[in-house]
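ok new one. same drill as before - structure tokens go in, u give me an amino acid for every spot. 193 of them this time. try not to just spam alanines like last time pls lmao
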């Protein structure tokens, strides 16, 4: 089975994440997309994150009616901070019969050469790139790389940062989240202070 790994803190998961993941399983050769919830990214501050179990619960709620979308908490038990290369090695050991690929926003491709062991990643894994608006240039070595596939998914300009700020500012952004995700966030009073 060919599986796209969609890494992120998902703090919180929103309709933009869902649109991209669903587009990838319906309009590429990926059979499933797994949301890999990251406890702490090397590039993000931990203070802004909900606890791991709450973010996992939110993603589980978001994907519960989509058979081709799954969640993974595999990084919760790996050394911190999480580096993608370490997770890929670990996930392949745990699921040797699957072929894993990475889903990346085009903005992440523009800084991909800064990733730990990026050469090993691109040698051994395919990258499925969805469009994002950003000013940076793509490294020329990635433009026509045989392991990099551009998927013309919709550009969704919603971010988790925007969602958190809007909730804190008492804005109704319930349409920007899967309905039951919004219910859970509202009921638990997340992001309100």
């Amino acid at each position: 089975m060919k599986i796209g790994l969609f890494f992120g803190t998902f703090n919180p998961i929103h309709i933009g994440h869902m649109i991209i993941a669903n587009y990838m399983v319906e309009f590429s050769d990926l059979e499933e997309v797994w949301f890999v919830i990251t406890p702490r990214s090397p590039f993000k501050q931990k203070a802004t994150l909900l606890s791991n179990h709450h973010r996992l619960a939110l993603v589980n709620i978001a994907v519960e009616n989509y058979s081709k979308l799954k969640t993974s908490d595999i990084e919760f038990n790996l050394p911190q901070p999480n580096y993608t290369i370490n997770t890929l090695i670990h996930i392949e050991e745990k699921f040797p019969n699957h072929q894993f690929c990475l889903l990346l926003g085009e903005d992440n491709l523009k800084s991909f050469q800064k990733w730990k062991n990026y050469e090993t990643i691109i040698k051994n894994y395919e990258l499925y790139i969805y469009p994002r608006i950003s000013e940076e240039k793509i490294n020329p070595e990635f433009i026509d790389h045989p392991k990099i596939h551009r998927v013309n998914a919709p550009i969704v300009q919603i971010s988790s940062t925007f969602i958190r700020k809007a909730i804190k500012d008492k804005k109704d952004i319930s349409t920007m989240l899967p309905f039951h995700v919004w219910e859970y966030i509202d009921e638990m009073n997340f992001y309100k202070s």
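The two ends are 43 Å apart (CA to CA). and btw The beta strands are 2-8, 32-37, 69-72, 99-105, 127-130, 148-150.
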